[in-house]
Design goal:
Helix content: under 10%
CATH architecture: Sandwich
Largest sheet: 6 strands, antiparallel
Strand content: over 45%
Shape: globular
Mean pLDDT: 94
């Protein structure tokens, strides 16, 4: 059994020099690869036929370098981020459910004295890595279980 779902992903960038480049994948299928257009948010709409079972929507920040973050007196004054503004599946905004995610960094980073390999509940991507939102098909049964 499968179902066709419509997706809408809205992302924006915070940047001072170089624009964030990103990819959107469903499971491991590349849906789009793009760069933030400017000050407006990018909205990507697509449909996908999904088999029953677990799935993962992935959003990747691809091009962050250490030179994209400027520190003054130990504080960030300029940075590059990819911001996940909203995720909608079948015209239903996931609102708080989009926070039930994991952001897995491509490489571990030292942050506030600790080594970070992933962050839970992160929608502002400041390192190269992959935001992952797990859900299931049938979507409406999964959604009912979550609300």
């Amino acid at each position: 059994m499968s179902e066709k779902l419509g997706f809408s992903v809205k992302v924006s960038g915070t940047f001072w020099d170089k624009r964030p480049s990103y990819s959107i994948l469903l499971d491991d299928d590349l849906i789009i690869e793009s760069t933030i257009n400017g000050v407006e948010s990018d909205i990507h709409n697509f449909e996908k036929e999904l088999d029953q079972g677990p799935h993962v929507l992935k959003i990747r920040l691809n091009n962050k370098e250490s030179s994209d973050t400027i520190l003054e007196n130990g504080k960030i004054v300029k940075d590059m981020l990819l911001n996940i503004e909203s995720i909608t599946i079948d015209d239903i905004s996931l609102n708080h459910l989009m926070w039930e995610s994991k952001f897995v960094l491509d490489q571990p980073h030292l942050y506030q004295g600790q080594t970070v390999e992933h962050l839970d509940r992160c929608v502002n991507l400041g390192w190269n890595g992959t935001y992952m939102l797990a859900f299931e098909s049938p979507f409406y049964l999964w959604l009912l279980d979550k609300i």
